[in-house]
Amino acid sequence: MMTELYDTFDKENHLKPNFDISEFETLDSWDFGWAILEPINIAADKESEKELSKRFSPGQKALYFFWYLDGEVTNGGFIQFYWNENRRYLPAILKGLKLIGDQQMVSLVENADKIYSKNREKFEAGNSQEDFEKLYNELSEFEDLDLKYFEMHDNTMSLIEKYAKQNTNEFLNLI
Fold first, then answer.
1. Taking every annotated instance into account, which residue ranges of this chain make up the domain DNA mimic protein DMP19 C-terminal (predicted)?
2. Which domain holds residue 150?
């Protein structure tokens, strides 16, 4: 995994957008998360994302990379997360979850990764929609993790919101 690509923070080039203070104070949960993510979610592709991520503070990285996990798992479970080759973000996701103090989600994601690691060849051998669908039948142990994820992800977003509101300077310039 390419941890070094996501570990760097170029403070001199920090991407810190201006943000309306009244929105900051009134938005919450997923609406808040999306509102502070949207102005930094500007990478055109995976290559430009590597450079862009260097401009993110640790808190911004926590939000940004969690959004990858959440988008995939809520749409197709952990199988979809791995099938779409998002494992490269795992170091950044885990680091972000630890930063915000979400040890339960860290454990869940680590458990999913253990299952993936045991079955990596099934993911790597597949290349069609049929292969993708077959994984759901063959790897039913992901089902419990997916269900737990759905129970927990709102708490993760609450922890990200709490962290962002306590560390505003890491995310935004309030105007």
1. 55-167
2. 16-50+58-174
User: C-alpha angle 137/79/39, rounded to 5°?
Assistant: 155
- The string of pLDDT tens digits covering residues 127-140 is 899 999 999 999 99
Is the pTM of the predicted complex or chain greater than 0.70? yes
Closest CA to 123 of 149, 90, 85: 85
Check residue 19 and give left, alpha or beta (phi > 0: left; psi -120 to 50: alpha): beta
Low-confidence ranges of the chain (pLDDT < 70): 1-5
Helices (H), 84-173: 90-99, 103-118, 120-125, 129-138, 141-166
Residues 68 and 89 sit within 8 Å (Cβ to Cβ): yes
Q: How many domains does the chain have?
A: 1
